[in-house]
Amino acid sequence: MANFLSEMREFLARELKARSVESKAADDISEDIAIHFRQSYGGIPIYIQKKSNDYSKRNAEIYRKFNGRNTLQLCREYDLCYQHICKIIKEQRDKKQSDLFQ
Length: 102
Description:
The protein contains 5 helices and no strands. By secondary structure, it is mostly helical. It has 2 domains: 2-41; 56-100, Arc Repressor Mutant, subunit A. The longest helix is centred in the N-terminal third of the chain and has 19 residues, at 23-41. The chain is elongated and about 55 Å long.
């Protein structure tokens, strides 16, 4: 984990500096974050996925594009099977309807 934290700290400092954060402040912030991670997660095996599984934006976009007749087009565009597109549309529709009653 020490190597991971060191690389993370260096990356954060670089990114902050690239976004016009003063050099010392960027170094201090990145060090504080590394310390927080070490204190909170040190000694715990952690798995970090390479690919995000947050498909909420994609699914909302599919639902916005859906017009009732373009399921196959959406399958090709998003490289998903017909059943999966139908499942996404149903879930998004159910979510929109439940949001109306809250």
